[in-house]
Amino acid sequence: QVQLVESGGGLVQAGGSLRISCVASGHTGDIYTMAWFRQAPGKEREGVSCIRSGGGSTNYADSVKGRFTISRDNAESTVSLQMNSLKPEDTAVYYCNAGPRYGSHYWGQGTQVTVSS
Question: In 3-state terms, what secondary structure has residue 90?
């Protein structure tokens, strides 16, 4: 079992920046991928960014490329998302996701990010 706890959400004006983080605990040695998803009101949950262990390859949704940066500290079992040039459409609950290369993944409880125009 892996437990994920997010932090760092809040309210920010458009054009501002915010950093959210997620700390994993439990059987963290099996974690291969750590990722961020988000879900806006009335919309489906969507992938934002992910980072893999080993070489640390990353992926980003087109909507956040060039504005968001994902990073990972394997020693601390944490993943962070630096969000710059935030837009009102980035408003959502952001969820941390982590898991092995093959098998079930785990979810955090989510952290609210609100961008005012």
Answer: helix
What own/partner pairs with CB < 8 Å and gap ≥ 24 does 69-76 have? 70/36, 72/34, 76/23
* Residue in 23, 31, 36 with CA at minimum distance from that of residue 102: 31
Amino acid at 103: G
Q: Is residue 76 exposed (0-12), middle (13-18) or buried (19+ Cβ within 10 Å)?
A: exposed
By the 8 A CB rule, do 38 and 107 touch?
no
Split the chain (117 residues) into runs of 10 and give each run's mean pLDDT: 95 98 93 96 96 90 98 90 98 96 93 97
Pairing status of strand 106-107 against strand 92-99: antiparallel
DSSP 21-59: EEEEEESGGG--EEEEEEE-TTS--EEEEEEESTT--EE
User: Tokens 């992938």 appear where?
Assistant: 47
Q: Which of 32, 24, 48 shows the shortest CA–CA distance to 113? A: 48
